Amino acid sequence: MGLTYAEIELINADDIALARRNIIRQEDIKSVRINMLADSGAFMMAINDNIQEILQLPFIEKRKAVMADGSIVEYDTVGPIMVKFKNRTAACNAFVLTGDAEPLLGAIPMEEMDVLIHQQRQELLVNPEHPEYAVLKMK
After folding, report:
1. What is the CB-side half-sphere exposure of residue 1 using CA atoms within 13 A?
2. 69 phi/psi in degrees, rounded to 5
3. Which domain, by its residues, includes 37?
4. What angle do CA 110, 124, 41 make, to 5 degrees?
5. CA–CA separation, 111 vs 80, rounded Å?
6. Residue 139 within any structural domain of the chain
7. Which pTM was predicted?
8. Computed over its alpha carbons, how large is the radius of gyration of the chain?
């Protein structure tokens, strides 16, 4: 079983709101396209310091996360971020990892976008049962 990466666009959601109110121009909305590891074992999205510098997302709070080895690490949480993949979007917050650590697309934004990891093809896919729009679970 290999790792699955996908090209994801991350956008400062506060900038989107400011542009809607004509406070900033559309071209001033901060965004970045990155190749992210789709990690269904990670609950939240995680970006790194370099991405945070580009997007300039506001600090929300400090949160702790349990790592794969059982250790607990405290991270800054920032947001909101608009996440785009193909014809899907999600809005979420993210942990900020130090330096140029690998960013992770976690389970929360993947569930909201109704996307699936195809393990054999090592590809992130729009749910083929709902190709036109995301269908979310309400129960």
Report:
1. 4
2. -85, 5
3. 5-126
4. 50
5. 17
6. no
7. 0.94
8. 15
Q: Give the amino acid at 96.
A: V
Query: How many residues comprise the chain?
Result: 139
| Nearest partner of 103 among 1, 3, 2, judged by Cα | 3
- What does the pLDDT profile of the chain (139 residues) look like in tens digits? 589 999 999 999 999 999 999 999 999 999 999 999 999 989 999 999 999 999 999 999 999 999 889 999 999 999 999 999 999 999 999 999 999 999 999 999 999 999 999 999 999 999 999 999 999 988 8
Q: How many domains does the chain have?
A: 1
The one-letter amino acid at 7: E
* Residue ranges in 8-137 assigned as alpha helix (H): 13-20, 49-55, 107-113
Six token digits for residue 110: 């993947």
In a domain, 137, yes or no: no
Sign of torsion, CA 55 56 57 62? Answer: positive
Read off the CATH number of the domain in which 82 is found. Answer: 2.40.70.10
